[in-house]
């Protein structure tokens, strides 16, 4: 982080000082409010205070309430890549996100939705509607202009015209029509790159012009390095079992979608959860949500909740130097740089990156690094947040992605994409009663009390009767954008652009692509070093080796979680924390990687036309 301090973490610290709680949180000192001294069933050290570490502590404290939990964090703040900052502008304040900015409620996202309900955060959330431009309008920049991606809401004629005339789609509709007739891969192929897989099944243009853009937006990675088996496990399996991706899709429609048994069980557990009916309805109407003070609110609320629990201790500014299993594998000693913070635990959950875990993992009396996890490459992403006084400097939408095929002269900065952040916050105009589609507040309140969903223009008004939430506190909304740079384009670079260069690169992208030449009123440059692990070809077999190595050395006393195993997003981090805690709770042996490569599949009931799938 190159600008602005860690105000939000410090503000919790101040709040706890003010609230008269017995110790100061977290500010480099430990904090534990022990209610009654009961011998803990599990004494667990969690390594890493990012979202995975916090979520692990949260699930442990809930599922194993008699456990004792110690979270070790090397830096002086918690939250990892999640970092929201409120910054001043001429007439108010606006919110910048350095890392992830929204959460999707689908799939593993049910965990973030559930956490939001349990932490009473839904009243602070912002829910753009499915039908809003933010949800529907997604663009790709190719070769020298923005192209809106087809969406059912745009109608047949517009979508067909775009597919037939835009160079970005050149050859793709024809390749898709032929996919079912293409020969399936040799059964001996263990894995291949996403690029190789989809250029075999569809076309090279489809990969370079469309898929590579999608992969930029999720992994900031190279389509020709990332693993098809790990990233597109469904189509990868469909080719092997049904002969083609299209045939696999037809089979799913007829017989029902195929899931691993573990996934089906997870969905069942989530379905039977006692959802707030209004939140459930709101989530069905939205594709992504955020909070009025950004995703940092989730971190702060989680931390506060854990401190109040009493059985969680945070040790910030406490780098761990090694973790050593006892000879009989009954416990693990965590050694910290400050020896007074070292301790012996029944279990350790590592929420560290693989490289960091390898550095601290030691065999008994061994001083050399132990390779527990085979090397998993990472990429560095620079995010540049900018705020301009003039509103609507871009077309309405979520943002745009830049594929690998965009000619160098149209993207010499090697940008990956641009996010239109204003789309996630209602403007003061949206909140003005006179601009509402319905403006009889009493009628709206009555409807809300009956559990009906009320929308204020493009947003669900969940926190009624309070004013709908907004992120930017300004009387007239400007334009807020984030330019994403780097990723795989910067692989092997000995150093990265500094703050000044980053800002210049971002402004140059905006000038060329959106014709924005205005001076930004506020900006922030963030370099997220090694933030996204790359699931490159052979990823699954590396995870299997990691499982074997960790089991051999720690026999279930060390479990791993994080964004390097089953998805790089915040929701996936929550899921890996959830899985580790569930297996600890049920007394199962494991490492956190025991499910990798499972072949136990079940079919769900097919969804008939007109029928709604269960969310
Ligand atoms: C900070 C950079 C990140 C990039 N990808 C991710 C991060 C954190 C991880 C990620 N982004 C998305 C997903 C899909 C599933 C999901 O959980 O939503 C994942 C795993 C989608 C996405 N991509 C962008 C945004 C704003 C979102 C929504 C989720 C979020 O807020 O992160 C834009 C975007 N992300 C990256 C780039 C290069 C990019 C470009 C416009 C990298």
TrEMBL record:
Cofactor binding remark: Binds 1 FAD per subunit.
Protein's GO biological process: protoporphyrinogen IX biosynthetic process
This protein's pathway: Porphyrin-containing compound metabolism; protoporphyrin-IX biosynthesis; protoporphyrin-IX from protoporphyrinogen-IX: step 1/1
GO cellular component entries: mitochondrial inner membrane
InterPro entries on file: Amino_oxidase, FAD/NAD-bd_sf, Protoporphyrinogen_oxidase, Zeta_carotene_desat/Oxidored
Record keyword NAD present: no
Gene3D superfamilies referenced in this protein's UniProt entry, alphabetically: FAD/NAD(P)-binding domain (3.50.50.60)
Function: Catalyzes the 6-electron oxidation of protoporphyrinogen-IX to form protoporphyrin-IX.
Family from the record: Belongs to the protoporphyrinogen/coproporphyrinogen oxidase family. Protoporphyrinogen oxidase subfamily.
The name this protein goes by in its record: Protoporphyrinogen oxidase
Annotated organism of origin: Recurvomyces mirabilis
């Amino acid at each position: 982080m190159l600008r602005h301090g860690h105000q939000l973490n410090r503000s919790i610290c101040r709040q706890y000082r003010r609230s008269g709680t017995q110790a100061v949180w977290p500010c480099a000192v430990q904090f534990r409010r022990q209610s009654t001294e009961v011998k803990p069933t599990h004494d667990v050290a969690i390594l890493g205070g990012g979202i995975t570490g916090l979520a692990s502590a949260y699930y442990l404290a809930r599922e194993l309430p008699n456990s004792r939990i110690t979270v070790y964090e090397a830096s002086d703040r918690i939250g990892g890549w999640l970092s929201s900052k409120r910054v001043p502008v001429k007439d108010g304040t606006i919110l910048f996100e350095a890392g992830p900015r929204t959460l999707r409620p689908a799939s593993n996202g049910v965990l973030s939705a559930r956490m939001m309900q349990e932490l009473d955060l839904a009243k602070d959330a912002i829910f753009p509607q499915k039908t809003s431009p933010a949800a529907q309008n997604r663009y790709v920049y190719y070769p020298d202009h923005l192209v809106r991606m087809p969406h059912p809401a745009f109608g047949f004629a517009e979508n067909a015209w775009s597919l037939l005339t835009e160079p970005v789609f050149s050859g793709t509709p024809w390749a898709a029509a032929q996919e079912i007739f293409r020969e399936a891969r040799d059964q001996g192929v263990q894995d291949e790159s996403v690029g190789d897989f989809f250029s075999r099944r569809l076309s090279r243009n489809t990969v370079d012009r469309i898929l590579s853009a999608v992969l930029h937006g999720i992994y900031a990675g190279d389509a020709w390095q990332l693993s098809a088996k790990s990233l597109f496990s469904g189509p990868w399996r469909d080719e092997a079992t049904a002969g083609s991706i299209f045939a696999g899709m037809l089979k799913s429609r007829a017989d029902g979608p195929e899931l691993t048994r573990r996934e089906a069980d997870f969905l069942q557990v989530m379905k039977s959860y006692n959802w707030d009916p209004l939140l459930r309805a709101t989530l069905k109407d939205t594709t992504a949500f955020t909070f009025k003070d950004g995703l940092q609110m989730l971190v702060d609320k989680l931390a506060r909740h854990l401190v109040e629990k009493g059985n969680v201790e945070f040790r910030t500014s406490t780098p761990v130097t090694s973790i050593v299993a006892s000879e009989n594998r009954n416990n693990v000693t965590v050694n910290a740089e400050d020896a007074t913070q070292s301790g012996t635990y029944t279990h350790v959950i590592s929420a560290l990156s693989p490289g960091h875990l390898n550095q601290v993992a030691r065999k008994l009396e061994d001083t050399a690094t132990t390779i527990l996890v085979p090397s998993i490459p990472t990429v560095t992403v620079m995010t540049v947040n900018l705020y301009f006084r003039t509103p609507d400097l871009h077309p309405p939408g979520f943002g745009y992605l830049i594929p690998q095929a965009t000619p160098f002269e149209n993207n010499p900065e090697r940008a990956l994409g641009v996010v239109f952040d204003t789309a996630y916050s209602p403007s003061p105009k949206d909140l003005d009663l006179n601009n509402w589609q319905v403006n009889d507040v009493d009628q709206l309140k009555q409807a809300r009390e009956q559990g009906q969903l009320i929308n204020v223009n493009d947003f669900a008004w969940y926190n009624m009767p309070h004013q709908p939430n907004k992120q930017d506190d300004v009387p007239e909304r400007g334009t807020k954008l984030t330019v994403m740079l780097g990723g795989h384009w910067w692989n092997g670079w000995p150093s990265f652009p500094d703050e000044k260069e980053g800002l210049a690169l971002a402004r140059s992208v905006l000038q060329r692509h959106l014709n924005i030449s205005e001076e930004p009123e506020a900006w922030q440059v963030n370099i997220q070093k090694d933030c996204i692990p790359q699931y490159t070809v052979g990823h699954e077999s590396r995870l299997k080796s990691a499982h074997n190595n960790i089991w051999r050395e720690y026999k279930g006393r060390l479990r791993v979680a994080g964004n390097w195993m089953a998805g790089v997003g915040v929701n996936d981090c929550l899921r890996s924390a959830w899985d580790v805690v569930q297996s600890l709770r049920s007394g199962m042996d494991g490492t956190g990687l025991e499910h990798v490569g499972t072949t136990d599949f079940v079919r769900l009931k097919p969804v008939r036309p007109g029928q709604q799938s269960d969310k």
